[in-house]
Write a structure and sequence with these properties.
Length: 483
């Protein structure tokens, strides 16, 4: 600021003209600074003049800090400079003499793509075109809706089962039913899914049965994870659905790797991976996007931005305009979608799939939605967010009701079908719980199996110690686990 002040000050300029005759020089780009004894710019009592670092004294004033008209006056060859390019490795970069920082946050936020209005009416002129319309025919639409309603019934009953102490943990998808199910509907079964944990709708769509869900939740002998994981850590080889990992965001770099494998095998398929808004604060999110971009891996990153990461509000999570803008930084195409509009999600994912496979490139989708339920059964969200906010999203922005209105308006769904579906699902789920509870637990030896072909000595020792402890304190261990 000090050099600028000196340059602009008419009094000082006149003084200098009288004393050293250098005003002309100032106009031509000479600058004045003050120099502290240590060489800094702190001491205005010892002014000095300089032209450029290589010619004179201590520093350099960048021309771009001057008002635009001065820059024009001073250097008539700027246009020539600006038209030159820096042949930097990777890509040419054009020069500019204008010092302009990119905005941190644009005034206009990235708009959110939607095609159904709040009443479930298709918005005239939207990009949900005839092709999409033909694909979301009666059969697909009814399946999408039935899955959403089923997920709601599952969530109600399994949540209750946890409250009754029959399972240890549960997370609901309440408020986010559309993202998982509509995205799954737009994919093909050969596409590989790496989920976070709030996407059971994808499994449901792919045909994971209610009994399979229940077996995992109860950790019984029919659970593919052999009871070694907490409830909700579903996975299915058959359905191309990777088993959920507890540490947030680990699935993202793995997804980039799986996508690269598909690319090397020249598969006509892509990877789809999900993350929450909280997951994007993990280093893994950034590593994954960068890897995928650089390796040109066909992977769709779907971020369910539901406003909260347990009790952390998105305002405390990032200062950017959400997640969508992060795609550009990594050179990845990205779109912001209304995650509570099933048709918008469907059409965006379908297009993303096409881009990912034909262009062999990643795509980022930010789906705006809201976690209406608590984070999990270990959380009480009324402690950190207003009830009014929850109610608003539950009622006014409910994705299931919105889609139901659309299929009803098409004549594809009725009140009768609604009540039949819900009551039959309720029966199925309760039956599956009873069956899961009756099924034997995995034998104890499974706890130590499947990691090493030949178990190492330390595991053999732990197995021995565990059995000794159970024998000593049988009352502290479940009696239904075969030893
Ligand atoms: C590496 C890691 N840190 C913290 C946790 C604890 N944790 C589990 S879920 C979660 C919040 C994730 O929020 P978000 O990604 O937004 O998903 P949402 O629950 O909203 O669907 C946290 C912090 C964890 N599982 N792993
Ligand atoms: Mg979240």
């Amino acid at each position: 600021m000090v050099p600028l002040w000196f340059t602009r000050s008419g009094t000082i300029a006149r003084y200098l003209k009288r004393k050293v005759g250098l005003v002309q020089g100032l106009d031509q780009g000479l600058s004045i600074c003050s120099r502290s004894p240590g060489g800094g710019f702190g001491n205005i009592a010892t002014p000095c003049l300089f032209r450029s670092p290589d010619t004179f004294l201590i520093g350099h004033r960048f021309k771009s800090t001057k008002p635009a008209n001065q820059v024009d006056d001073v250097n008539s060859s700027d246009d020539e400079i600006n038209s030159q390019v820096l042949d930097f490795p990777g890509a040419n970069v054009s020069y500019t003499t204008e010092m302009r920082f990119l905005a941190g946050l644009n005034q206009n936020r990235v708009p959110c793509y939607r095609v159904l209005d709040d009443n479930g009416d298709l918005i005239v002129g939207s990009d949900f075109n005839q092709i999409d319309h033909d694909q979301v025919n009666e059969e697909i639409a009814v399946k999408m809706y039935s899955n959403m309603a089923t997920l709601q019934v599952m969530d109600t009953i399994f949540y209750e089962a946890q409250r009754q102490g029959r399972i240890s943990f549960y997370v609901t998808s309440t408020g986010e039913e559309a993202v998982g199910i509509a995205s799954a509907a737009a994919l093909r079964e050969e596409d590989v899914v790496l989920p976070q944990y709030r996407e059971p709708g994808v499994l449901l769509w792919r045909g994971f049965t209610i009994q399979e869900f229940a077996n995992q939740l109860f950790g019984n002998n029919a659970d593919y994870g052999k009871g070694r994981q907490m409830p909700i850590h579903y996975g299915s080889n058959k359905l191309n659905y990777f088993t959920i990992s507890s540490p947030v965001a680990t699935q993202l770099p793995q997804a980039a790797g799986v996508a690269y494998a598909l690319k090397m095998d020249k598969k006509d398929a892509c990877v789809v991976t999900y993350t929450g808004d909280g997951g994007t604060s993990e280093g893994d999110f950034h590593a994954a996007l960068n890897f995928a971009a650089v390796m040109e891996a066909p992977v769709i990153f779907i971020c369910r931005n539901n406003g909260w990461a347990i009790s952390t509000h998105i305002r405390e999570q990032f200062r950017s305009d959400g997640i969508v803008v992060k795609g550009q930084a990594y050179g990845i195409q990205a779109i912001r979608v209304d995650g509570n509009d099933a048709l918008a999600v469907y059409s965006a994912i379908q297009r993303a799939r096409q881009i990912a496979i034909t262009e062999q490139t990643p795509v980022l989708i930010e789906a705006l939605t809201y976690r209406v339920g608590h984070h999990s059964t270990s959380d009480d969200s009324t402690k950190y967010r207003p009830l009014k906010e929850i109610e608003y999203w539950k009622r006014a922005r409910n994705p299931v009701n919105r889609f139901r209105k659309w299929i009803e308006a098409n004549g594809w769904w009725s009140v009768k079908e609604e009540s039949e579906l819900r009551s039959s699902m309720r029966k199925q789920i309760l039956g599956a719980i009873q069956e899961a509870e009756k099924t034997e637990m995995p034998p104890l030896k499974e706890l130590f199996a499947d990691v090493y072909h030949v178990p190492p000595g330390n595991l053999i020792e732990q197995d021995k110690q565990l059995r000794e402890t159970i024998n000593k304190h049988p009352e502290d261990y479940p009696s239904n686990v075969p030893l």
